[in-house]
Write a structure and sequence with these properties.
heterodimer, A: 427 residues, alpha/beta, Rossmann fold, six-stranded mixed beta sheet, four-stranded parallel beta sheet, 17 helices, 44% helix, B: 266 residues, TIM Barrel, 9 strands, 13% strand, binds pyridoxal-5'-phosphate, Tryptophan synthase beta chain (chain A), EC 4.2.1.20 (chain A), TrpB-like_PALP_sf (chain A)
Chain lengths: 427, 266
Amino acid sequence: MTLTLPHYPMPDDRGRFGRFGGRYVPETLIPALDELDTAYRAAKTDPAFLSELDRLLREFVNRPSPLYLAQRLTDHAGGAKIYLKREDFNYTGAHKINNCLAQALLAVRMGKKRVIAETGAGQHGVASATAAALLGLECVVYMGAEDIRRQSLNVFRMNLLGAEVREVTSGTSTLKDATNEAIRDWVTNVRDTFYILGSVVGPHPYPAMVRDFQAIIGEETKWQLRAVEGREAPDAIVACVGGGSNAIGIFAPYAYLPKDQRPRLIGTEAAGEGVETGRHAASVAGGRVGVLHGSMMYLMNDDEGQIVPPHSISAGLDYPGIGPEHCHYSETGVAEYVPVTDAQALEGLQLLTRLEGIIPALESAHAIYHAVELARTMRPEQVIVVNLSGRGDKDVAEVARLLDVPKDAPTVTPAIQKPAIQKEVLA
Amino acid sequence: MTAVQSRGVARIHAAFERARAQNRAAFIPFMTGGYPTAEGFPAVADALLARADLMEVGIPYSDPLGDGPTIQRASEQALAGGTSTRHTLGLIKELRRRHDTPIVVMTYVNPIYAVGPREFMRLAADAGVDGLILPDLPPDQDIEIADLAAEYGLAVTFLIAPTSTAARVELVAKACTGFLYAVSVTGVTGAREGSALGEVPAMLALARQYAGVPIAVGFGVNDAATARQVAEVADGVVVGSAFINAVKNGQDVGAVADAIAAGCQR
Ligand SMILES: Cc1ncc(COP(=O)(O)O)c(C=O)c1O
């Protein structure tokens, strides 16, 4: 057993990161959250749990994921060295599996036979369905109707894995509504159901627990970077933020370092068609403090408290809030959050694909775009690590649609021109 | 402060006391503010208020995660019709001109934060609201809201559920100033087939040890027969989805309310 789970000074006993976080949920769930908290605390230091998780992360997930120097991308930007933390190499294609396997193991440990999950892009749903199949658990995944359309490939994968996908048509038919539905299911079946939450959101202890399970991303980055650069901390880390789990996974191991040893931590939020248009999912840039899904956070909501439907080209970032720990980082200056638009993300996706032969998830493409912009302002001896949260297979059909590739296009298509993208996205 | 503080609390307790003196459980109908439309709501509310000991008005909210499909759809419809937080409080203010029945508002915490906790309490008190029911606010989460409510003379009601441990029941019961709301089932709101008291008696026996306020039971009560069962053990019976369904189906809400109210007689 080599795996240890980190102990960070936050949240406090009440599940607060500064003024963010907490447990704003129906009373029915409070005992379940207490039970989960107790079980998690015990598991966290139990050698049996840790060695089983460690084995699965190595043998099943394919960890450690490589830290890869993107030389051609670096040359293109003409500034800082850009490394990619390749979470896209994880089995099932994204960082989500780290957390899902850990939570599913916890479910088994707690004697639960049924797990539920919410999903936007489908990556968390696929990861949950995979973990459930592996561990012999019944699995139900809630997914918005709009996301089911955008991510039909992942719906099929979940079904194949034996999970039931329940379509959610309330509200905006996307991730926030799928999350509401999963919470309602949990309120109803709390005694025998484990809720595998997919990001660093929700009531305490979820934001802390999911962070701890994802922190392996940053922990690996430390020793991998030491091997190639002779130092553990890069100058900057860039990661996309939906709820914020892949970002917190790579930030947290650095976030609690003294200020002078800390890299710049930058989260890219989905700015959709532009923060000023209102059609975005940038909760820090375009939201204000509110409560959703059990925790206090930056939230897109109007002056009467109704949630404003978010928009992003990527289903996984299409969420009106951002995890409470990120809110605290933002408020205290530990991390910065920058908006990246749909058009810019598409540009990032094509750039990485053309220059490195890596098709990133649309989510990760937000981080790629910003990292290139940032690298340009930095010096060649400086280092940026980008968390490449997932691979783009799930998005290719949607990207083809956005790039206006005709359905009957010949199999060998001419190079896709940039102006075509911009026209479609900005129209 | 105590003089103001007593207003909502006193009115709510008096309503339960009156019902008890008549050997009834208090009849507490619920209706979503602005449902079915802003124009149609007052007539529905009039019909319910005329029969209620206490009325619950829900502030329509986009993400009501403690509610089942019936109330959720009603909220969506009310919101689509332009009703929202301030508007619902305005509708209540109108009702106050015609009715003296205590009114409590059911609201999720986000609308309170968005309007601003102090401003929200001021508007609610000004509208003649007597108390608040906060389905996603466990009492140990946010003391500010309860304190502000007290400052503005509003009673607060928190919820217990069949899953609540004895320690939670004690904490919640002691935090309530209006009445204690016991959720009859592990689940969200909504009318249910096959009424059974299930875990309610045991939950109430536990709650009685700690509660210095009346105890109402809700979630899933949708007809006179269920109301009668609940009335045997509780001080009040809350009924919501049944009335929304009645409105939706074009039934006479007053008649449906009469039937269920009769069930509250012991
Ligand atoms: C590849 C990928 N990256 C990022 C995200 C965003 O989630 P988070 O911010 O929790 O990492 C998702 C969510 O589905 C995803 O699939």
